[in-house]
Amino acid sequence: MFQTLRDAFKSKDLRKKLLLTLGILFIYRIGCWLPIPGLKADVFADAINNGNGFLGLLSSVNGGALSNGSILALGVIPYISASIIIQLLTVAIPSLERLSRAGEEGRRKITFYTRITALIFALIQAIAIVLTFSATDAINPDALGVSMPGWCVSMIIVTVLVAGAMFTLWLGEKITDLQIGNGVSLLVFVGIICSAGQAILQAFSDVFSGNLDGLWTIIIFAVMLFIIFALIVFVDLAERKIPVNYAKQVKGRKMYGGQSTYIPIKVNSSGVLPIIFATALVAFPQLIMQLCGVTQGNAFYDWWARWLGTGTAIYFVVNAILIFLFTYFYAQIVFNPEEVSRTLQQNGGFIPGIRAGKPTTDYLKKISRRITFFGALYLALIFVVPTVALSLVPKGTVVSGSLVNAFTVTGLLIVVSVALEFDKQLNAQLIAKNYRGFLK
């Protein structure tokens, strides 16, 4: 990757695109620290960091923007939620499925629907945040310097949060237009890296202050992270290659076909989405109870926190089961054996030893089910094992607390996936730039 970046900076066009991308990311990070008028940032941060673990996870994805009470506190969370919902509805609603296959015009309409859904989600999440913290000292009407009722201050905060979320989406689309990577993914990548960087600085400052035991904690943690990163990269690049041959066809005086290729089926085709679905679904009831003012002391809340709270044994079992289910569901969206078989038959392609038509479909279904099983098993293990392993890091120090909270499994998967995709995009740009054709 470092070699790819060095080669990219040697190209004038790519260097310009990279510098523009860095400038947009810098603007995004500034917005993650600008406070919302009428909000006490310190009280808001304490409530986020010491409260619901799901809100803490969302804050780490945004690079601490949520805990900072900044104007970009919602970040890309509404857009990610909207994208997931639209993807699920594309499978369930035939009209959306037809739009997804209608080429560029259909994709533009789906993008428009996604933006509208993201706006609705941003409004709902902003109102929920204001209602959650309206009973605390987090909202401070006197901070605006003008005497106004509390509901007016709440409306201003909601407006700022929604505007910040849509501005973040606009920044992501501008990065995507530069064609060196998905803008929203890069914003999430930068947010996670910044949260991890803050945790690392906090850990080293604790060591330099005289806590030498924290040094061994950092070393053990670094070894664990190296092993986890290596496993994620190995599986993320793994794929099953199904050989495909194309029959020779004579049309006029020319012969077409006759070449051999393959169908790549990735072991982890669904990426990190099953883990996001599962953790969000398990944490959703507790989040709703907190938004409705139900906290500790309530019988149902205490029961849920005890048995299904983050870190409990049942929590891991339920998440592992849900990850399996979501992986199989999303695999059907990513890879459709019937469509692939029909495309092969229409283009004169066939799998050696397998007849075209239904036998090819059944063969692809069997291969897809087997690979999906290993992909689901990998995601379940990568969710449970590293979390348990990282929890074994010696506790009781600032080092262990900050590092474990910053380096989540979901964050690690996102970082690796986005980094690999960014490297592929840059390599594609370099190949297109250096290509001179067959005649030279």
Structural description of this entry:
The protein is mainly alpha-helical and 440 residues long. The protein has 18 helices and five strands. It has helices at residues 2-10, 12-31, 41-49, 53-61, 65-68, 77-92, 94-100, 103-133, 150-177, 183-208, 213-237, 273-291, 299-308, 313-334, 337-346, 358-391, 398-406, 409-434, and strands at 239-246, 249-251, 254-256, 260-266, 349-350. It has a three-stranded antiparallel sheet. A two-stranded antiparallel sheet has the order 2-3.
Which features does this protein show?
mainly alpha; 18 helices; disordered C terminus; single chain; 440 residues
Briefly characterize the structure.
The protein has 440 residues and is mainly α. Helix content is 71%, strand content 5%. The protein has a three-stranded antiparallel sheet with strand order 4-1-5.
Average pLDDT number: 78
Number of helices: 18
Measured between the Cα atoms of the first and last residue, the distance is 29 Å
Q: Which blocks of ≥5 consecutive residues have pLDDT under 50?
A: 396-400, 436-440
Number of strands: 5
Question: Helix coverage percent of residues?
Answer: over 70%
Q: Whole-number radius of gyration?
A: 25 Å
Strand content: 5-15%
The helix/strand series, from N terminus to C terminus, equals: HHHHHHHHHHHEEEEHHHHEHHH
Q: Indicate the overall shape.
A: globular
Q: Largest sheet at a glance? A: 3 strands, antiparallel
Side-by-side strand order of the widest sheet: 4-1-5
Structural class: mainly alpha
